[in-house]
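Response to reviewer comment R2.3. The reviewers asked that we include at least one raw input/output pair. We reproduce the pair for 4-diphosphocytidyl-2-C-methyl-D-erythritol kinase here without editing.
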Amino acid sequence: MLREISLPAPAKLNLFLHILGRRADGYHQLQTLFQFLDYADELTFSLRDDGVIQLHDALPGVAHDDNLIVKAAKMLQQASGSIRGADIRIHKRLPMGGGIGGGSSNAATTLLGLNLIWQCQFDLDQLASLGLQLGADVPVFVRGHAAFAEGVGEQLTPVTLDEPWFVVAVPQVHVSTKEIFCDERLTRNTPAITLAAAQTQEGHNDCLPVVELRYPEIRNALMQLNKFASAKLTGTGACCFTSFPSQQEADKVSRSLEGGLQHFVAKGSNISMLHKALQSLHQ
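Raw output as returned:
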């Protein structure tokens, strides 16, 4: 039995985000295009035989049992009837409130990692269904393939996109997704587009005008990136990005950014680092 495993929890980008309307339950109908980055947190899961789930690396301002990692572990434990537990450690690289999926990705990696060491034998459909209860973005990380997403983000159609290099700026603000989606200035009437149109990546981000109004730091980051290429906001932010066909071009822009703007360079990937790591385990 495998008693310890380390797995990545990769970032994602929303290459566009259209909001089509608001449902009666308050959730929003949307369309978006997800692609992963080769930039990730790393989670280590160590098997415990006493059923205790212990996350050893607390996040600022997040109680232990409120962390999505712990919630995901307890949900899988209950759903599978497993009597095992785990010590969980995280090496954090992805910013909180950055719109690149840190919490959702952590939850998905937890579901897949513990499914393996607890020998639950749940398939991806079962794990994605559990993940959806934790957040609309969790299923795309569970499935691990770039996707066109509809509904509240849970209806996924796998797509194969170009895999450019990205410069991702990280403004030092924490954006509340809930607050952005509750803002009355947010437009909620973008017409639906087809899968074929989505893959041209010519869409926009309906959250951008509201986010720029609320967070001047993000507006400043977009202005800096726009000097080099068309800049976009991922999700509700705070992270913004531009894409380039080569690492050389991305690195050149990285060296040119001014004013201490925190950022990183990463390659786009249609298959997530998590699934690549899991595949290598089975070879």
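The mean pLDDT is 94. The beta strands are 4-22, 28-48, 53-55, 85-91, 147-150, 155-158, 165-169, 232-233, 240-244, 263-269. Further pairs are available on request from the corresponding author.
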